[in-house]
Amino acid sequence: MEKPEISLFFPVYNDESTVRQVTEKAIAFLSGESSRYEILIIDDGSPDRSGAIADQLAEEYNRVRVIHHPRNLGYGAAVRTGLRNSRYELICFTDGDDEYDIYDFCKLIRLADYYELIITFRYMKLYSSFRQVLSWCYNCMFRWLFNTRYRDISTGLRVIRRSLLSELDLESTSPFIGAEITVKVMLKGYRVGEVGIQTFPRRFGKSTSTTWANISGTILDMLSVHRAVFSRHYDLPKSRVRE
């Protein structure tokens, strides 16, 4: 079977201890799993040496590109930058803190002929009790608001087809971006697959996913997307017009 062409990207923010590790894992993985590939590192205005290390990696490896945000724009904005700048049809994206293992993309790519978007759910959550409760509340709220049954909407390991992106009109700048992609792909009638994975809590630094800034930003983006997709005018059939 012919191997796919793959773009793989990940945002970095305070990830100077893991950016090289994640990049070199991605190179090793993609060298065996793709016919052609590229790796994009999205430096979201990181205050540490993440961006500088990413630039060093781009000098060392010709398949690595770096895009710098002049200031911190948020996780969702970094994901949108990665999606917008990916060249190949199959796009893999994850986080830069090494909580998700690059080699789990094998499971997702295996299903790429059957689904336009493949998301993941964590069947082993080795996090603090606070983070697990927060994740449970978030997923329950999402399922209720958007009338879906996805098990774990916030997991940061996904594969999507580039050809879908022009139809999605993404707006989130917070970590809600993954959920927004999923619900908009679903409402367009495309197939969404789910794959179970384990996670490996970061060994360096501190996660920013549970900061109040990210939590409040996620709630605001969730409500904004909910208003949009449940409006009377969202994605109407061509034969229908509302006054």
Description of the molecule:
This protein has seven helices and seven strands. It has helices spanning 19-33, 50-60, 75-85, 105-109, 129-146, 177-187, 212-229; strands at 5-12, 36-43, 64-68, 90-93, 117-124, 158-161, 192-198. Strand 2 (36-43), helix 2 and strand 3 (64-68) form a beta-alpha-beta unit. Helix 6 packs parallel to helix 7.
Task: Give the helix/strand layout.
Layout: E1 5-12, H1 19-33, E2 36-43, H2 50-60, E3 64-68, H3 75-85, E4 90-93, H4 105-109, E5 117-124, H5 129-146, E6 158-161, H6 177-187, E7 192-198, H7 212-229
Parallel strand pairs: 1-2, 1-4, 2-3, 5-7
Antiparallel strand pairs: 4-6, 5-6
Helix pairs in contact: 6-7
Keywords, separated by commas or semicolons:
Spore Coat Polysaccharide Biosynthesis Protein SpsA, Chain A, alpha/beta, about 240 residues, about 35% helix, 7-stranded mixed β-sheet
Unreliable residue stretches: none
Instruction: Evaluate the radius of gyration.
Output: 18 Å
**Going by CATH, what is the homologous superfamily?**
Spore Coat Polysaccharide Biosynthesis Protein SpsA, Chain A
Strand order of the largest sheet: 3-2-1-4-6-5-7
The helix/strand series, from N terminus to C terminus, equals EHEHEHEHEHEHEH
- How far apart the termini lie comes to 51 Å
CATH architecture: Alpha-Beta Complex
The oligomeric state is: single chain
Mean pLDDT: 91
**Helical segment tally?**
7
Largest sheet: 7 strands, mixed
Number of strands: 7
The CATH topology is Spore Coat Polysaccharide Biosynthesis Protein SpsA, Chain A
Overall number of structural domains: 1
Overall 3D form: globular
Q: Which percent range describes the beta-strand content?
A: 15-25%
The percentage helix is 25-40%
Q: Kindly name the structural category.
A: alpha/beta
Identify the CATH class.
Alpha Beta
